[in-house]
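tool_log.txt
---
The assistant was asked to compare two proteins side by side. It first ran the structure predictor on the initial sequence, then on the second. Raw inputs and outputs are pasted verbatim so the downstream comparison step can read them without reformatting.
(1)
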Amino acid sequence: MSEKFFQCTSKTFSSCNIDPLKLILAAPTSCALKNLSETEDLIFAVTGESGLERLQHMADELDIDGTDECALIDKVFKVLKEDSFTLNLTFMLFEAYLGGINLIDINREISEKIYEGFIKLKESPLVQSIRDFTSKEGIISYIVNEIKDRLAYNIVYPTKSVLLSRTRFLVSCEDLYWIIGFLWPKAVDLPDSALVNDIIADTKKHIDDDKSIVLYGKDALLRKIVYYLVVRGLMEQGYRIVYGSPRQRHSLPRTVYICDKPEAGFLTPYISITENRCEHERVALIDIEEYDTKDLQIWFAKKVFEKDNVSVSDKDVEEIVEKHYGNLSLIETLSLYLSVTGKEIKEVLAEKTDYRLSDLIERIIEKLDIAAEISNINANGLLVFPETLMASKNDSLKRVLLYDPSLGLCSFRNEQWLNLMKSNGLERKKFDLGSLWKSISPFHATWSILKYKPNLSIQIFSKAMNTLYDKNSYPVIEAVAILQPDLFHKTLYTYTTYRLELLSGIISENGNWFSSASLILDISVMILKKLVEKEESKYLERYLSLMLKTALFEIDQGFPDIAYQKLLEAWNIVKNREMSPLIRTEIVGNLGLTLAGMGRIDEAEKNLRKALDIIEREFENKDIPQKARFLAGLAIIAESRGDLENAFQLYKKALDILVALVYRGACEYVGNMYEVAEKMKEIRKSYKDWRVCGGLVKCGAFELSNKYGCH
C-alpha cells in the first residue's frame, strides 16, 4: 500500500475544515487522484480495473493539478452524489484508508471527524446506494470507534512494560545446530551424547535445582561441540529446549531455555528479563577443562581428518590430540593445512614448531589463493551467514567453509577466521537485503543475519511489511518476530486491532508462521486490555475472543502452559459476568483441552463437561463445531484411561456433528472429520464410516479419501 495515500488522506482530514461526511467519502479519493501514478497498485487492488479506469477519467475531467485539496473534495463529492458507481468506488477507498490507517499519522481532531462523518453517512440517503453496507457496517463502526477511543484515551504508543515481553521458539534436534550458530553437525555426524555424560549429568542436576548453567572453555570449537551434545542429551532425556525468554515462570517441568546469546553456552530453567539480557539469580559455572573429553576430541579429530581426506593412523590422531589437548580449533585447522599443502602427518609430528592458529590460517589462504574471495564475502561479524552473501563460488573457497545446502547457510570452520578478517581490516560492505528473499530458506537467512546484526532489523522488517505480496516475506517476518519482538511492538502497536488481526490471519495462512502471528495478536490483546479498562461494554467480548485466539496459537507452538495461564485469566473474567454463551463455552472448553495436554486429566474432564453442559443448555441440538472438539477431547481422556468403548462412542458423537457440518458445505472441518474417523479406526480396526468418504470427496480431499480407504 502507498504510504503517500494514507499520509495525504490524514493530512487532508486535518487541513480541510468542511463537512465530515464529505471528508470521509471524498478525501481518500482526492488523495488517490493527486497521487495516481504512485497509488495505481493500491487502487487496482481495492477497486479493480474498472475502478482504476474511472479514477483516471476523473483525474482528467476535474483539473486536479489546478485545484487544492479542499476544493477538490467538493468536486469529488458532487460527482459521487450523482453517480452510484463513483460513490461505491469512493467508499471502497475510505474502507482501504481505515484498514491501513496508522495512528501516528492522525490526532484526536481527525479521529472525531472520521467518527462524525461515519455517523452522518449512516443517516444519509447516500447509504442506500452503497453495496453491502449493512454487512460492512459492524466492522467499520468498530474500527471508527476504536480510532476515536484510542486517541481520546491516549492508547497510541506502547509502554515500556509492553516492550519487555518476549516470544519463544520450541527447538528440535534438527534446529539445534543453526540456533547455536554451529554447522559442524552438518559436516560430520557428531558422536553419541554419551561421550559427555558427566557434563550432562551435572548440567541436569543444576537445572533441576533451578540454577542456570554456563558452559565455559577456552577453545570455542570444543565448547560448542560440548554445548551441542549437552543440549541434545537433555532433549534425549525428555527436556523441552526453548529459544527465547518467557514472560513468566512456566508451570511445565523439564523445560530449559537457550538464552538470546546461545554461543555463550548459557542454559537456564528460568530467565528474568533485564535490559535485553538473560539473567538468573543462581548461576553454576561448568568448566569443560575440568572434565575428561579426550575420547570426544579423538573422535572429532578423526572425523575432521576424514572429511579433509588426510590419511592418518589412529595412533597419529591420538598423538596430535595429546600434543594439542583442549585446542580442537588448532587440530581442525591443522587438518585443513595438511589437506591443502599435501604434507604428511609424520612431518608435522616430527617438527619442533608450535603451530599458531592464525599462522596456519594465513598459510591456507595464501596456498589456496583466496584472499580476494574471502574479502568479497559480505559476512563481517556473522558466525553463520546465508550463501547469498558470497559473491564467489570458487571451489577453493568452499574448502574453508562449512555448508548446510538444505538451508543455504555457511560458516567459516572456526571463529578464528572471523577474527583474522577483522584484524586485516577487510572492507565492511553494505548488506543487500534482497539476498534474504533469494535465499533457499529466507527464515534461516534472516535469523543468521539478525542474530549478529540486530541493527538491520528495522530495514528488513520494513521491506517485509511492504512486500506482503511476496510469499518469502512471511518467513522473514517470523525471524524478526522471534529475534526482535520489541520492534514488532513499537511498529505495530499504532495499528488498529482490526488491521492487526487481519495481518495475523494472513501470516498464519501463508505457511503457519505462528510466532509472528501470535505476537501480533498479543499486541491486539494488550491494546484491547487498555480499552476495556476505559470502555468495558464496548470491548470486553472482543478482548476475550482475541485472548482465546492467542491461547490457541500458544498450543500450536507447543506451549500449553502459557495457553493455560491466558485461558484461566479469561475464565476468571467471564465466570461472574453475563457474557455470550459461545465465549463462555470456548474458554472453559479450551481450558479443558489445554489441561489435558498438560497431563491434568481430572481437571480437564471437569472443564470439558462444563463446556458441554453450556452447549446443551444454550444451543440444544444444534451442530456446532465446538461441541465436536470437546467430545473428541473427552474421547482422548477415555482412551488414555483404557476405556476404549466409551472413547469410541464419544468419537462417534463428534463425528456425527462434523459430518453434518461438512455435508452442509463447511469444508473447513473436513480435516477434523478425517482425524476423528481415523481415531475410531485405531480403536476398531475394521470400522469405516462411508459418510466420511462422501464428505472427503465432496470437499475435494482426495488424498485423505485414499488414506482413509475410500475405494
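(2)
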Amino acid sequence: MVDGDIKKLQLAVEYANDDRQKVDLLNELALKFNRVDPNQALATAETALHLAKSIAYPVGYARSLAHLTGAYGRLAQYEKALALGDQALQLFETLDDAEGHGQLLMNIAWVCRALGDYAGALEHLMTCLHIYQRAGNVQGEIRALNGIGVMNWHLGDQENARKYYQDVIDLSQKYQLKETEGIALMNMGVLYCDGLGEYEKSIEYYEASDRIFIEVGNLRARNDVQLNLGVAFGNLGNYERSVEHYQRCLKAVRKLGDRSGEAHVLENIGALYNQQERYEDALTYLQQALQIYEETAEKPRWATAHRALSEVYEAMGDLGHALEHYKRFYELDREVVNDNSERKFQNLQVVYQVEQSRKEAELLRVKNAELEELNRELEDQNVKLVEAQTQLIQAQADRIEKEKLATLGKLSAMISHKLNNILSGLTAPIEHIMRFEPLNEALIWEAWESDDEGHYLDAYLKHYRAEYNLQRRAAEIVQEAATRAKLLVHDLQGLVGEQSGKLGRLNLVEVFREVYRIHQDELDHAHIVEHFDTDTLEVTAKRGEVGQIFIGLLMNAVDAVQNCSEPTIDVFMRPLNDGVEIQVVDNGCGMPDSVKAHLFEPFFTTKTETGSGLGLYTIQRIVMAYQGTITVESQPGHGTTVTVWFPQGDQSIPLFTT
C-alpha cells in the first residue's frame, strides 16, 4: 500500500502546477518515505525545504524541517536531528499548523527516547497530545497516547504502559486505524516478553502486528517485529529461529542505513551467542554494536553493550578486559541514572498530567461523537476526490505523451519532405553527368589529318565545350544540394541533437535562423520580417530549449495570420536591461481578455482539433527557469504581441529541469 501511495505522490509532484502545492506533496512524500527508507525521506525533505525557502512558504518550510528531524533521527544522527527540531519548534510557535507541529514533537520525542531522555520525550508527547486534542485529530491523539505508553514502559510502570497500549488498540479498531493498532500490538508483545516473561504470548502479539504491517506496507515497523521475534525465540531456547529473525532484520536495517537499528540487532545477536557459549562470535557482534553506539552516543544501549562485553570476557577468563568494560558500563550507567534522577520529579509531574489528559480526552471524545458521521462522509468524499485527481493526472500524462509523439511525427515528416526535395533535384543532373561521353580521340585525329581548314574539328570542340558546361552546371547543382543537406543536418543537430541539451553561451539570432530554415515550408505562408539590432545577441541557455521557444512562438503566429490577406510576422530582437528582448508581432485576429487569461494554463487551447494546450505553458516554464519573463498583449482584430526577455549573463542558469 505504501509503495502505491508513494508512486501516486511522485506522479502528483511531477505534474504539480503550483509551487506551494508541490512543497506540500513533497512533505507528504517524505512522511511516507520515513516508513520505508529514511535516506529517501531525507532527500525528499531537503528538496521541499529548498523550494519552500525560495518561494517564502513558512508552513512548508517548517514541515520540511520536521521531516528532516525524523529522517536524521531514523539514521541515528541525533545531534543534527535535535538542532533542526529546535529550529522547527520556533517556527511552529508562530504558525497555525497542528498536524505539522504534532508530527515534529513526535519526531523529537523518539530522538529523546533513543538518547535515554525519557522525561524530555514525555514532555514533548504531552504537548503533542494537547495539540492534537485541540485540533480534534483523533489519529494524532492515538499516536501520542501510544508514545506515552512506551515512555511509561521505559520508566518501569508496566501496568500503566499496558493500559495505554490496550486503549490504543481499542481506539485504533474503533476508527479503523490499522497502523497504530499494529504498533500497539507490537509494544504489547514487548511488554509480555521483556516485562512478564510470557514469550509465547508475546510471539502471538508480534505475529498479529506483522500481519498488519505487511498489509499497510510499513517496512520499518516490520524490522522491529523481526528483532522482537528474535528476542522471544531466543528466550524460548529456539536459537535457530532466533538467528533467522535477527539476520533478516540486520539485512533490512543495513539496506535502510538505520545505524541505531543495526547496532541493536548486533547487540542481540552477540547476547544470543553468549548464551550458547560461542564467545568469539559474541565478541565480534558486540564490538560492532559498541562501535556504532559510540558514534550515535546512545548512552543506555552503549552502557548495556559494555556490560554484555564484560560478561563475555569474564566467561572466557579474560578478567582484565571484563573489568575494563564493566567500569565503562558503570560510568555510563551512572550518567544515565543521574540524568533520570534529576528528572524524577519532572517525570511524576508529566505522568500526572498524562492521566489528566486521558480524562480530558475522553470528555472531548464524547463531545465529538456527533461529528464522527460527518467526518466519515468527508473522508468518503476525500477518497473520491483523490481518485478523480489521480485519473486527471494520468489523463494529463497520457496527453503529454501523445503530444510528444505528435511532435516527433511532425518533425519526421518535415525532415523527410526536405530531404525528398533535395534528392529529387539531384536525379536529372546526375543522369546528365552519367551520360556525358569522353573526348572522341579517333574523331579528333581523323579531323586533324583530313580537315585542312579545321572546320569539322572546330565544330566538334565547340559542341564538346557546350556539353562540358552543361556537365559543370549539373555538378554545381549536386554540390548545392549537398550543401543544403549538410546545413539541414547542422541545424537539426543544434536544435534536437546531443548538443541541444548542453548549457552554454549561444547566439539567439543564429538559433532563430536555424529554426526558420528547418521550418521554412510551414512558415512560408506568412511574410516574416527580421528587425534585429545586431547579428550577435548572446545568452547562457540550452540551444534546444531556446529553439523550442522560437518554434512555438512562430507556429502560433502563423496560425493566427492564416486568414489574413497579407499575413505578416515581425520578429524583433534587441539588448535590454542586461538581457535580450524578443518580440513576435503578428497582424492576425487577436484574442479577447477571456482567452488571454488562460493562455499559460496547461491543456488550454483554442485549436480544438490540433492543439494540445501545452505550447505556451511549456514556453513559460522554460523562460521562468532561466529567470526570464514572458508577456502577451492582444486585442480582437489588432493582432498579438508576445514579448520574452532573457537575462544575458550566467544568472540565467536554469532553476530546474524543464
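---
observation on (2): Residues 340-349 have pLDDT under 50 and may be disordered. Residues 500-652 form a domain with the Heat Shock Protein 90 fold (CATH 3.30.565.10).
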